[in-house]
Amino acid sequence: MGTNSAQDLRQSATAMMWAGVLAITIGFIAIALPAIASVSIAVLIGILVIVLAVVWLFAAVGSGATTAWKVTGVVLSVLLLIGGLWILFNPIDATIGLTAVIAVVVIVMGVVRVVAAIGDHDADGRWLIALGGVLAIIIGVLIAADFPSSAAWAIGLLVGIQFLFDGIGLVLLSAYAKGTLRR
Predict the structure, then answer these.
(1) What are the angstrom distances between the C-alpha of 83 and each of 18, 47, 50, 59, 154?
(2) Is the Cβ–Cβ distance between 177 and 16 less than 8 Å?
(3) CB–CB of 139/123 below 8 Å?
(4) Which of 20, 21, 52, 180 has the fewest CB atoms within 10 Å, i.e. is most exposed?
(5) Residues 6 or more apart whose Cβ sits within 8 Å of residue 118
(6) Whole domain around residue 84: which residue ranges?
(7) Residue spans of alpha helices (H) in the chain
(8) How far is CA 147 from CA 25, 71, 95, 99, 141, in A?
(9) Cβ-contact 46, 85 below 8 angstroms
């Protein structure tokens, strides 16, 4: 391994470590303040939907498509814009709606995992897939059982946990990369 490659890897590992520390910090904040994190995520989704509306509009108008497709693109852009603005101006209601969707999606994903694990008799570790599915079902049911109150904690808590685990993974991967360089 050349000097530049080792230095590049060292810099990447350091950047990865700092990204991990930042993710862990954001995760702890989201877990500690799940209601604020939930609403913040809804606002971010609203902003992203508005950006998508603008991009879709430029793509529709600037394309070489037929007039019918252009009109369809413009109509979809307007609907996306209205939806994004509604989310921005009603973040609590949007959080409640997103929480309902998350509860359903998590339950369905859990059921699919359990069915896949049961159906795949030859897979090594299929019990882990089944266990993950059962845990997903339990989480989805807990969110649904506390709905709509769960909107105050579910999204922020789940995203916080995800950031925490991703951050830990990045820090560990960084440490592994740095350890490999030392050898």
Answers:
(1) 36, 10, 8, 19, 22
(2) yes
(3) no
(4) 180
(5) 130
(6) 3-182
(7) 3-32, 34-62, 67-89, 91-119, 126-145, 154-182
(8) 28, 39, 11, 8, 10
(9) yes
Q: With the C-alpha atoms ordered 133, 100, 27, 85, is the resulting torsion angle positive or negative?
A: positive
Can you say how many angstroms the Cα of residue 103 is from the centroid of all Cα atoms in its chain?
A: 14
What pTM does this model have?
0.71
Residues in the chain: 183
Number of neighbours of residue 113 by Cβ within 10 angstroms: 21
Structure tokens belonging to residue 74:
């413009």
Give every CB contact of residue 139 below 8 A, 6+ residues apart in sequence: 106, 110, 158
Instruction: Work out how many domains the chain is built from and give that number.
Output: 1
Q: How far apart are CA 11 and CA 13, in angstroms?
A: 5
* Cα Rg of the chain (Å, integer): 22
